[in-house]
Amino acid sequence: MPEAHPLSDLRLRGVSCTAVEVPLRYVLGTSAATVRAAPLLLVELQTEEGVTGRSYVFCYRRSGAKPIAAAVEDAADIVRGERIAPVTMAAKLQRRFALIGVTGIVRMALSAFDMALWDAMAVAAGVPLCTLLGAAPRPVRAYNSCGLGLMSPQAAADEAEALLEGGMQAVKLRLGYATLAEDLAVTRAVRRRLADRVQLMVDYNQALSRVEALERGRALQSEGIAWLEEPIRHDDLPGNAEIARALDLPLQIGENFDGPKDLLRALQAQACDLVMPDVARIGGVTGWMQAAGVAEAHGIPMSSHLMPEVSAQLLAATPTAHWLEYVDWTDAIAAEPMKIVDGCWPLGEKPGSGLAWDARAVERHRLQ
């Protein structure tokens, strides 16, 4: 256990960033792309007191790592030497980056920096991140989001069964085949293979038009589906609102929310029944907790998108916590890969978010 430090004493010394690309155990074929490896940016924050805070983000493309890293380093330069205070620093950095725009790569960089700040504070306090946020560590219900990309019905059913390891009680299936008949054939094959108690989410990755989404959504309503995720463009709020009104099947969006105000706009437009922010796009820990307050005020269940290590800590402190999206992408570089137990991410007493990397594995997967 690291030595505890008074939080008021922590001052930022600097950051270092390392880009890696890790292989996926299950290939992820979506309507948008086929992903066989995940480019990640690892962020390590140092304080003058010797405390280290860690975070990481999924960069989507190899080319994303360098500009995100440059923005993280720029942010650290702006507040170097200051007392670590994530909420205050987030407001300051929002102002300093306003002219270039706090969206996309800049948003992801500031989110990664914010996560590392909060991790350092929790490590310094010697408590899990969720405890620093006022919650008790507890098992967080997870669904398996590895694999289950576009494939034949038989292959999808086989893979869905394999994804029940660790006592998983829910899995997510990617749809968006050329025809509704193909979508239904795969969905039915997977649903038949799974026990009734196992929930099945489906994700279109924004592949459909409004008309197609309504047609396919209506057809899926009787197929034992837990939610319909991103059937159309995430930023078409009127279209999503139309779909949410027309279907009994819950509509899930949110992984592309660019900060808490995007979540608020979606809920004001009644554009979804469920939300699932991405901690790297919503504004890190600071942005997540703001978004969680908005979701609670609207009575909307809130799930996570990727980065399960940090997301599990945040869901433990989220009043309307719903599901943790589990992926095993960091297993290739983790010092101690996390294992799902009885379908849950087991939050223990490790300080911070529990991130720790295997240095040799990181070097082996480093992006040049």
How would the blueprint of this fold be written?
Elements: E1 12-29, E2 34-47, E3 52-58, H1 65-79, H2 86-96, H3 104-125, H4 129-132, E4 139-144, H5 153-162, E5 170-174, H6 180-193, E6 199-203, H7 210-220, E7 227-229, H8 237-246, E8 251-253, H9 260-268, E9 274-275, H10 279-282, H11 284-298, H12 308-316, E10 324-326, E11 344-346, H13 359-364
Helix pairs in contact: 1-3, 2-3, 3-11, 5-6, 6-7, 7-8, 9-11
Distance between the termini: 34 Å
Task: Based on Cα principal axes, name the global outline.
Answer: globular
Number of helix segments?
Answer: 13
Q: Give a short account of the largest sheet.
A: 5 strands, parallel
List low-pLDDT spans: none
Give the DSSP E fraction (strand runs of 2 or more residues).
15-25%
Write out the strand line-up for the largest beta sheet, numbering strands in chain order: 5-6-7-8-9
Extended strand count? 11
Q: Rg, please?
A: 20 Å
